Amino acid sequence: NKHIISIADLSRDELELIVATAKQLKQSPRPDLLTNKVVASCFFEASTRTRLSFETAVQRLGGTVIGFDSGGNTSLAQKGETLADSVKVISSYTDAFFMRHPKEGAARLASEFSSVPVINGGDGANQHPTQTLLDLFSIYETQGTLEGLNVAFVGDLKYGRTVHSLAQALSLFGCKFYFVSPAALAMPDYLCEELNQAGVNFEVVDDLEAVIPKLDVLYMTRVQKERFDPTEYQHMKANYILTAKMLANAKQNLKVLHPLPRVDEITTDVDATPHAYYFEQAENGVYARQALLALVLSEEFA
Ligand code: CP
What we know:
The chain is α/β, with parallel strands linked by helices. The protein is 39% helix and 14% strand. The chain folds into two domains: 7-127 and 285-297, Rossmann fold; 129-282, Rossmann fold (3-Layer(aba) Sandwich). Helix 2 packs across helix 11 and helix 6 (129-143) crosses helix 11 (278-297). The longest helix has 20 residues, at 278-297. The model has no long low-confidence stretch (mean pLDDT 94). The chain binds phosphoric acid mono(formamide)ester.
């Protein structure tokens, strides 16, 4: 089974293949590719984009989705069933198992009990590999390359799993990183260590506006409210807010990305600028997840 648990499970060649396949499927839809395939979509934590774009991806490829959302009406949530037992049973009904869970390591654990490929749709503050696939596709689509870009990550770099996965992926492509966050929400030490060992050029900077003219990609994130107690969150939120005015000296090719949902870290006047790409990015979730499904499940693409 080819499980997709961490972005680090994928090589540079595999990432490039997924991006190329997403491009192909966006241009030429394949409504028959997953005929007779059943895919589980199991969300133990809230989601709008990841769940709905994944389920759209399956259905537009001709497959069928079963599963549940984070409402909790399952034997695991209501009757004390273990994740391991739930996964054993659900994987026996299906051809692939897509899941999101609030605990770090849950998808890895599930992969040990699943008889079919497990795809991680986000595990706590750890990893969000399929978000990274759509981020890479959006970067490639707008920049024409993944190579040698100047990329700033802004906001909650400590708990932002999308940041962790994307930084690991882009570290394979010689990009320069700028990390912009309150000190309490800085990139985790283990990731900085990993980037150092990989020889990645990165800087920690305070002044977002000063760094904008250097950038090709500005990756904004929200403070992960669900990982804080409410008082702590009040002190953390909205430290860095991007406005249209701050983009006055941006390079023409700069694209602002955000995994969404946004809270107040990008003002709505940015939406009308040519730099905003976050809604197109969210749409690309369908094509990136279709590409992954095609490569994991379709003999034609395998
Ligand atoms: N980007 C993202 O993971 O959004 P959802 O939480 O809505 O799935």
